[in-house]
Design brief:
The structure is a homodimer of 196-residue chains. The first copy, chain A, is mainly α and 196 residues long. Helix content of chain A is 76%, strand content 0%. The structure holds a DNA duplex (30 and 30 nucleotides).
Chain lengths: 196, 196
DNA sequence: CGACAAAGTGAACATTATGTTCTAAAGTGA
DNA sequence: TCACTTTAGAACATAATGTTCACTTTGTCG
């Protein structure tokens, strides 16, 4: 299933670096981290780091790619199994909130005022891509002149992002199911407006 | 009306620095700029820069504070003049899109993939604050248990942000009036859902 | 006007991070 | 086992940051 990398030293090193980055993000947020911090924590040589990644941002996106792939997978499965046309958005968002709940520690660290602006940007983009697939599939081919679907996508994804960050911060006393239901209640009218 | 700063050298220097930052942002985005770049462009001494601002981020937020204040002002006036309860949200957002249109060059520079993550974060926050004032005023005191108003705020502000960035990029062939109308059409159901 | 306080200059400096390069040593797959 | 790849670790060049200081210029206010 997974792609063969054929040298386990590579996998090991990359895993160590990703894990180190993760734990450091929880501690001090992303922007405050130096490459030195990462390789110290990972116990990996400096040259080794640069043999694998261009810089710390590169390492970060390589990690988020895992998240992105996982979410895309869930989305794809949901598209196959669920039938009702307005259950599809649910299936995707539910998985997203569940994922956030799982990585809540990292999320909370990223939400901090200044630190983590880049991560937020990347997450926002991931959400945009996910929402786009769902919305475009739902709206279908009949593009509406009064509400361009891409505008709806950006609106809904932005809303999802805002809501997610608030929820991840723990400011809402809600379960993943509840916040997901709330999201759908807020977002569905917008999607409907686009498809009208 | 304006606060007296009493020494025009200070104003002059700060204006020069802000203008330099602005023009540099249009060129290379925010993150790629160094303090050296700024003081070269502004033709201001290094020590002088640090006498006024802690770092380039400090300079940036001091500039955005102007924008924030202007928008808040417009919002306050709109609250006084407009009557209909669902025209208030319009009044605020219309001004926002007009502002974006005016500074479209800077906005477009900020939207670039990687550079400008911090600015985006700050803008997002400004929008959240503006939306909060409007939504909380509209929802009134009767807080709803099924839809916490702060959740609605974050959702709507996130949507506004996403839509604004898309529009600022020029990907929508719309006037400020049109995109504003679209925003309201997408957002109003969410606000209504909260007040129900 | 003119004195004086406030602001700006520019260079030097300590510090910190970045990304590259090189050689020896260790791990891996066939 | 052996050829090949990866890693360690240190040394380096470069670049940016923020501070300090002695000195000059500029506005403000009496």
């Amino acid at each position: 299933m997974a792609v063969r990398k054929s040298d386990r030293r590579v996998q090991r090193t990359q895993e160590l670096l990703r894990a180190a980055l993760l734990s450091l993000i929880e501690q001090k947020g992303f922007e405050a981290i130096s490459v030195q911090n990462i390789i110290d924590r990972a116990n990996v040589g400096r040259a080794t780091f640069y043999a694998h990644f261009d810089n710390k941002e590169d390492l970060l996106v390589s990690g988020l790619d895992g998240l992105r792939a996982a979410l895309k997978d869930h989305q794809r499965q949901a598209h196959l199994h669920r039938g009702g046309s307005d259950e599809r958005l649910l299936a995707f968002s539910h998985e997203m909130f569940a994922h956030i709940a799982e990585y809540r520690d990292v999320f909370r660290a990223m939400v901090g005022k200044r630190s983590g602006a880049l991560i937020q940007q990347l997450l926002h983009k991931i959400m945009v891509d996910l929402v786009r697939d769902d919305v475009k599939a739902m709206v279908g081919q009949r593009e509406n002149k009064s509400a361009p679907s891409e505008a709806v996508v950006q609106f809904v994804a932005g809303g999802l992002f805002g809501l997610s960050m608030l929820w991840a911060e723990g400011k809402l006393r809600m379960s993943a199911e509840e916040v997901n239901a709330l999201f759908r209640r807020l977002a569905m009218p917008a999607v409907t407006a686009a498809a009208r």
